[in-house]
Amino acid sequence: MSDVTLIAHRGFAGEHPENTVRAVRAASEVADQVEIDVRRCGSGELVVFHDERLSRLTDATGLVEETPWSEIRELTVLDSGEPIPDLDTVLDAVPAAVDVNVELKRTGMADGVLAAAADAENDCLFSSFDRRALREIRERDADATLAFISDRGPNCVAAAVDLDCAFVHPEQGLCDEAFVTRAHEAGLGVNAWTVTTREEADALRRAGVDGVITDGADVL
User: Fold this and answer.
1) Considering only CA atoms, which of 2, 42, 48, 50 is closest in space to residue 22?
2) Which pLDDT does position 1 carry in this prediction?
């Protein structure tokens, strides 16, 4: 067993159609934690989809937040045949023993995300680049486990502490030993993203990170 948590970025996006039921089921066979992206669609449902726009991953155009669920649910991701799922469906697909990292792409979703997580058997971590989204979660749940995501330098440690986070999720280029030591001294776990090679993962392990968020299972 690895001493570093293996976190499947979008359900190992390098191996499976990202953020789909197929991806999270396959990733759950080897990962300690599955990371997914959540945003609200035009009719209000919480959908598991990374981009603001539909065009990169589907044959549709337009913004997710302006497209109703009745249309989104009929779309498939690339040529996989896998539909875009809602949050409840994805959480149902992840075995209870596997943790879920729910990344909030926008504000205004805290109530729905927390309700979905409460119905799931998994331990859930809530992460975001958006400080307001994390504050909304904390306002509603004093015990929620939070992570601040950043690609903007070592001051993200202070921001994560200010947001009452348990983790900081820095871009891997920030994660030298000094950064990790500073985060650990502040009481934060460190999960670095997005790792694509074994060499990157080995360097991060030497720096002392707690987890790697990766597109492939073979980096550890």
Assistant:
1) 48
2) 39
